[in-house]
Amino acid sequence: MVRIPLGPEELSRGLRLGELLRSTRGPRTMSEVATEAGISVETLRKIETGRIPTPAFFTVAALCRTLKLSLDDVAAVTARKADRADAS
What we know:
By secondary structure, the chain is mainly α. The chain has five helices and no strands. It has helices at residues 8-25, 30-37, 41-48, 57-67, 71-87. The N and C termini lie far apart (37 Å).
């Protein structure tokens, strides 16, 4: 199966997701959060740095549960720039 390359907007959304997770994680270590969410530290690192810009839904849901974030909040933050561009 061939994957279609992600466009600039998808990559930008991935960076916004990573920033949100990093800031919400606060002083907790990546290891603590990854273990509680049931993912590897490397996966969390890649998501936080934007190297995995489109993580699986269940991965995002597990991180949201661990970090006490609502999926609605995550969707709002990651879509924010796209909404501003549409309004122009």
